[in-house]
Amino acid sequence: MELLAVVCLCLLTWSGTTFAAGNGPDVIKMVVKEGDDAILPCSLSTRENIVQELFDWKRDGQKEVFMYDDGDQYNNGRTGQDEQFRGRVSHFPDQLQFGDASIVIRNTKVTDSGNYTCDFPRLQPIRRGLIELVVGASPKPSIITLNQTKDWALLQCEVQGASPKPQLQWQDSGGNMVPAKDPQVTDRGGSYDIILQTTVTKTDHYRCVATQEEINHQVHAETFVHLNGAAPKPSVTILEQTHDGVLLQCEVQGASPKPQLQWQDSGGNMVPAKDPQVTDRGGSYDIILQTTVTKTDHYRCVATQEEINHQVYAETLVNVTGEFFYLSTVYIQICLSFCC
């Protein structure tokens, strides 16, 4: 009789299988995230009934994980189980008749990582299965702004207690890698605290991505940085006036991110305008928007920056009475703040 490794798909992430030296049994490497359940497979290739047999699971050759002996086991009064596993390990009674001695460890912890053996000591020769279990912790990164001027911001990403060791990377909103300083890594006996800093010079959404390839896991945190004149004040001027109408111009300078401009009447209706004149100055924008109005009314030029949930406008009154036009400009700013 030989042991047959049973592939268990429940809540497992396979990272590969290694082999023991010589003619020993295969060593199956299994990786799960902390908090998930892990099924450790162990079955006889003959699929013979083991209801009346003895099998014993240990970790690292010492800690008693689970023992079954002809119906007697740790969950029904048997003593000797290591405190670490008490109440978290069980077998599959309905599978014993098929030679299946697999167990499940529930709510796994990083400290459950180790080498597990499944032994049938009464069988000759003794049969043994070997499992290497890796339990990974995947905390979400935290982001803080350490320093900021109108031209740049120093960002810091930190991950604490991660296992296995993650790779950290800063990315912009397009998913492009942002250059960063060398990471600061602290090894706490198999779990890791990592700090990664970067300096950014453009208004954008930035994310810190933590990747743990061994457990096929990725998590990120995101922050928004706005630099170089976001929320500019629009200026409204009268360029030309005739008996038939008034040509108005709205101008925004040094805006970042790029705003959308729109003319509106007092009822909030859009007023048709010419195509905007846009000048890109390396990430900040100068924009001019012109319109011709023919009625006495309050008109406003609205600048909207959706990326930072911000809107600002300037308003003017045009009074059309024959050849007389009266123009007064009032500046009103609305800053819309939204909960993240």
TrEMBL record:
UniProt domain Ig-like: residue ranges: 25-118, 121-225, 234-321
Per its UniProt record, what InterPro entries does this chain match?
Answer: BTN3A2-like_Ig-C, Ig-like_dom, Ig-like_dom_sf, Ig-like_fold, Ig_sub, Ig_V-set, IgSF_BTN/MOG
The GO cellular component terms are: external side of plasma membrane
Coiled-coil ranges (or none): none
Keyword ATP-binding carried by entry: no
Cite the SUPFAM superfamilies for this sequence: Immunoglobulin
- Signal peptide start and end residues: 1-20
Question: Which Gene3D superfamilies would you find in this protein's record?
Answer: Immunoglobulins (2.60.40.10)
Biological process according to GO: regulation of cytokine production; T cell receptor signaling pathway
Q: Which GO terms describe its molecular function?
A: signaling receptor binding
Q: Which PANTHER family match?
A: BUTYROPHILIN (PTHR24100), ICOS LIGAND (PTHR24100:SF151)
Protein name from the UniProt record: Ig-like domain-containing protein
Q: Which organism is it from?
A: Mastacembelus armatus (zig-zag eel)
- Taxonomic lineage from the root: Eukaryota, Metazoa, Chordata, Craniata, Vertebrata
